[in-house]
């Protein structure tokens, strides 16, 4: 068997046992709470991993973009939520093609105007499109305000013959900016309530809301316990990363993805790795997270801080002596696994340091 230490670098490594443990942990939580599990695949972008999640009990998947949905559908995944607003006519044509292929599609809406675009393109087809209302639970990105604004969109959906209201959902991405776990707990509670209270507003007006869905890896085990929530959609929890460790969401031992890197330069005040911004990414969290130091955690070498990145160089500094030398190889836990995975074409899957398989990052670069 090939030892990972013999591989060329930089290489994207995936610990098979940690992956399966993380998938099982999410599925177990969903079963315990009596909620459905619809993981976001923007983290792993892999048909193989999506299939493992479905085998573990996921009712379907979530994607960010249509192109991701197209790749997953081609790989046999047939129940897909596209958690992104869509009104462009060309993109709606692509939605119709997915419906034609038998995909049980759901699409995010938060604007009555977008409903007209969807209705117009669907009118000359035999299909009805399921739409879910996105509510804003504090991230202040997409989404209507919970409650009465959600009801207005729900009423508008009911007036369109080619649209079917299937659920209400939200994403508490601002949890990544939390400074304490207590703050994450508060955000998670508000996340669940934003969905449940919006659904209640609609149902009091006679509009049923079958699915009440929450997301965000830091909060899904909090929002998922709110009475009335029926589904969770964590993405990053399949791998975890240094940001999740910094937030107190998980332990470093659960991080399934690492980058194998080589030492290419050793100097009296710094050490250089062959993992720059084109592999590790210049990411410390999209929503203001400050719980990470540097640009990745080097396993077994806490004395080295990756202080800065250029395109092909990771510059490490050390206050105490390090035994790393030229051509040594290390594993680096990335700050943000989602962006790092998108830089690579394949995972090298390993167990106990030995390569067991190669899996393609099928939806790499699918951003349209």
From TrEMBL:
Similarity comment: family membership: Belongs to the DSD1 family.
SMART domains cross-referenced by the UniProt entry: D-ser_dehydrat
Every D-serine dehydratase-like domain range: 256-351
Protein name per UniProt: D-TA family PLP-dependent enzyme
Domain of life: Bacteria
A UniProt-annotated Pfam family: Ala_racemase_N
Keywords: Lyase
Organism taxonomic ancestry: Bacteria, Bacillati, Bacillota, Bacilli, Bacillales
Organism: Neobacillus driksii
